[in-house]
Design brief:
This protein has 25 helices and 25 strands. By secondary structure, it is of the alpha+beta class. A hairpin with a 7-residue loop joins strand 10 and strand 11. The termini are far apart. 41% of the residues are buried.
Length: 706
Amino acid sequence: MVLGKARLAQTSHSAEHRLQAIWAFRRVVAAQPENREAWDLMGRAATLLGGADGERIASGAYERLLSLDPADPVAWNGWLILYRGRGERERMRRILARHDSVPEARARIARLFIEDERYPAAGELLDALLRDDPLNPAYLGLRAQGAFEAGDTARGQATYARALRYADRDAQGLLWSQVVGIASPEEIRAWEAGVPPAAREGFLTSFWARRNPDLFAGVNARVAEHFARLRGARKRFPLLHPLGAYHRSDTTRAAEIRPSAAEDAFYLYCEAQDWSGGQMRAADRARTPTIAQDLGYWTLWNEQVPIQKHRVPLNEGSPVDPRVAAVSLWFLPERFVRDKSGIQIPGQYPHDPSLGVFLPAPFGRSLQDVDTTAARAGYNLRTGLDDRGITYLRYGAPPQRVIGAPNVEASFCRVPDVERWDYPDIGPVRFFRPSAIDLGMMQGLRQTGDMVFRPQNAPQFGATVASLTRDATSAPATLEFEAWLAEFANPDDLRLTDIAVFSTQSVVAAQLVAAFEEPAPAVSDRLGLALLTARPGSYVLQVHAHAGDSLGRLERTVVVRDFSAGPKVSDLVVAPAWADTAVDRAAILARAARDLTFPPATPIRVYAELYGLPRASDGAVRYRVAYQLVRTGDFARDAQRDSLPGGTVLRYDRVHPFAGRTAIEWLDIVPGLVPRGQYLLRLTVSEPATGRVLGVSQIALEVRAQ
């Protein structure tokens, strides 16, 4: 035992000391078959060994350990990351069935039934467990998953809501393991930083609220969609080699995450062109950098005439032997390499003589450029899915899935180990099995036996980034609309802020979602205005609109302002002016221009609220306001400027009797001052005596021809 522990503690990446540790622990369990520590350490050593041998040894060790202690969480979690097909699940159920008096063993049997899609058997076990422990979130989560996957959405929604309610008791983290496959890198970092048990319900509830596809529905259909996708991904795209170094070692993953030279050659030969010598696609011509054209001559190797070499100058438009131009050729710097299929593979960069120009160099960007949380090993082992399964879980089935390379002219390209999934919203996602290309010295030998992300041009790289960092519902949202918001102090509680959300569609719903809090219910209205109240802080604002059968969705991150201390100015609201001069918040919100546009010759009423202004000795509030209206062609740029040159400036000195901490400021801008165009309107509030700025607020608007 001491020898095995010593070998296991060695930090060398060599497999020798891990094999020696396994050998030592085998001697221990041969003498003491019920030594749980030895079985556990053997499983750990085998997991570190990796490969098929490591997986076989680890599986046997963990199975033996669970036969001794069916509730052991370490052994169970170690077994879960191994490959498990139907046979492995059946064998584990037989082991656990020997301990059917242990609730945890029955729950694990139920989970394996769900993975085998035997939902009635799983439901029967979990219902019996819930009768004895109705508040167990793990039992509730599994019962909800089984119901969702079986198509019983109503039971699934109700049971899953109960599971989230008792998430503080989920010590094993089952509820998080069910959703980690669609979590963003920010959400993973937040969870791993440590979510207190009391905050788990709010975290998971807000997790799903940020993904709600329809705020009008009352039920978040994204939850049911996720578990339906999980069933399909688990069945079609399981991780085949979880103990491969690519998935287990950050170092190996970093080394192999970049396509090899042979993979680049395969792509350029088989995918960048539909046929040998065909025109390259624009995205591949744009790959950078291109190689210089001052290298003199290259040596060609003719596939059809192996003993013949050709010397071709590098200049564009140089004459090419027709026998050479008619076949696939690779230009190599005074050397050539032939692989076992007879196809010429470049050691450097390929050149297509039929085009007379150099082909671009291999794509230079690596997935290491993506958020480190998403790019490192983690998603695959936690979900048991390969990269296709992760993408399927996040975006659903692709509208177009192409298996194999488009160049079917060459036998070398006719392999099923490359796929391209095209999504309208994110673009083409390319997957490749690196072990399909074995060219020895051509850097083609990779140990990754699973289908992994392999972007080869800019559009594919962007789609891969989206597959690693975002997710989306399959429910369509084709309605186009715009929305804007204005923030005010809450009149009843200074710790709260009121947010008015204006929409260009009349039927609108809005919701603010924080990271660790259960969100308030969505607010909907039929007048293009939703009124929300929240504490200051960072939120995700979701705005949905309906028109007939069409749905539209907008989402943005907002930081709700704090008006409780110091002089502050609310956001501006603009509306067509009306005759009454009794102006308050309700009146301006009811009349506000939902699209921030006005017809010519229409007086524009501007409204703001001022908070916490200093009082003079006589109790009055005195301040100076400056309204500056500047024509602009770029709202975002001009809004960031400290000063706006030009435009029209209106200045006034105001005196208000003190009536609480809020003063209302409004002004009608007459039509003659507002010709057609786009404008930025900025309100600056300052002290009359010193000129000290107390607050600034601004808004963009447009005057259009009718």
